[in-house]
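User: Sequence for Putative glucose-6-phosphate 1-epimerase below. Tokens please.
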Amino acid sequence: MTTFNGASASLGTALSGLPRCAVLSRGRGGEPRLLVDAPAGSAEIYLFGAHLTAWTPRGGKPVLFLSRQAVFDGATGIRGGVPLCLPWFGAGPQGTSRPRHGWARTMTWRLRSVQTTAEGGAVALLTLEHDSLAVMYEVEVGQTLRLSLSLRNTGSSPRLVEAALHSYLAVHDVTACQVTGLEGAEYTEGSVSGQVQVGPLQVRGPVDRVYRSSGTVRVTDPGGSRTIVVEGLGSPTTVVWNPWSGSAKGMADLADDEFPRFLCVETAAARQDAPVLEPGQTWSLGARLYTESL
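Assistant: Structure tokens for Putative glucose-6-phosphate 1-epimerase:
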């Protein structure tokens, strides 16, 4: 993880020394984005929300789902990819925080640097400072995707923070998938807490579960002939979400027929596992994603 003392580059200006595998351009809605096409993998990152909208390991298929109705207007959170939820999750610990899932996903971040890796990939560093928090986000693209998020309390008082890497995993048919790695974990769904996961999870309807689990999650997708693996790094919480048909119909930025094509597995620190940062304290979480062929 890069420290908070890195060099800066102005938002919206071309960075000097960009590697040949990376380019800044205007994407959908005219929004600035970073395109990476490295020997080990490719990706697309919008500066709005520091939003990773695509990642494909070299020789593989796209791993992240992006709705064909996603909005790119510089104001609305992007539906799909990996939204960043912070400094609170949902409506926050007290249920009163707005906007939903925090301000990080609806603000424009600064792209500080892009560097190549020895493994044939590339790593982008983005930063944001707001509301007495300094945030750094590293996205390392290659055969494996590594996401690293660091928050520092720049205020004068202790601060409770929640965070989630809200990964939309692309699957062939969510009803045929099997989710393992959460067996025995306690979870909350809706207003019901203290439930325990028994056996693998199979999605047969709407699911919105907050697990107290830091274990590796495996989503086996027979139709896609692969397993998508999500390893949390320093994350005590795992969230699994799919809106199903009923809720999907109420989402303008999600087509009615798209809900079977994704499952969200979120690396997080939320609810009773949210950390409290003392003034000047830094805290980090991350995730590592990769695929295995069936």
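The two ends are 32 Å apart (CA to CA).
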